[in-house]
Amino acid sequence: MPDVAADRLPPLAEEQMTAEQRAAAAEISSGPRGAVIGPFAPLLRSPELMTRLQKVGEYLRFESPLDRRLFEMTILYVARWWDQQFEWTFHHPLALEAGLDPAIADAIAEDRRPEGMDAAAEAVWELLDELFRTRAVSDDVYARVLAELGEAGVVEVVATSGYYTTLAVVMQAARTPAPGGPFLPDVRGAGAGDAR
């Protein structure tokens, strides 16, 4: 269910921007994103932060060697954790295009462990689920994900989850609207807070 509250930090018109904001907007618009969208509209209020942060995201999204299916699965996990509609709406189709089983995406949307995952997806799920729910990673889970992805892969998954967490909390605070469906279902009850 989408959040219909007013966008607190909507996109800026060019005439509203400072010279620094115009330069930052031009830089992101000339890159692979093509425009200031989603979290970058509120982040543009701090143009230097937006520029530095979006460079990390540009690497993760467009250059990281992490399997695209596992990359997008990580983002869906983060979007569900934060109930972040924009992140979910934007990345759900990208996850399916990358080969993520729709049943896995559906399970994540419903905040439950997916069934029928291959070993790599299961290792990523266990890493994220344990890290987010317990704020730690056990030796057993670490060993499984290490065996599947190697050290670089572990770091890429964890960094991806951290980067998209940053974007999620920015958009939650700014009330950045989602561009359309599919929307995350309300699994905890409106106004119930975090039941995890």
Note down, in words, how this protein is organized.
The chain is mostly helical. It has two domains: about 15-60, no CATH class; about 70-175, AhpD-like. About 60% of the residues lie in helices and about 0% in strands. It has helices spanning about 20-30, 40-45, 45-60, 70-80, 85-95, 100-110, 120-135, 140-175. Helix 3 crosses helix 8 (about 140-175). Mean pLDDT is about 95; it is low at about 190-195.
Q: What characteristics describe this protein?
A:
196 residues, mainly alpha, AhpD-like, disordered C terminus
Helix content: 55-70%
Briefly note the structural class of the backbone. mainly alpha
Number of helices: 8
CATH topology call of the largest domain: AhpD-like
Task: Look at the structure and name the CATH superfamily of the largest domain.
Answer: AhpD-like
Q: Please tally the β strands and state the result.
A: 0
CATH architecture of the largest domain: Up-down Bundle
Distance between the termini: 19 Å
Q: Mean pLDDT score, rounded?
A: 94
C-alpha geometry:
globular
Spell the H/E element sequence: HHHHHHHH
Radius of gyration, in angstroms, nearest whole number: 17 Å
Give the low-pLDDT segments.
Answer: 191-196
Strand content: under 5%
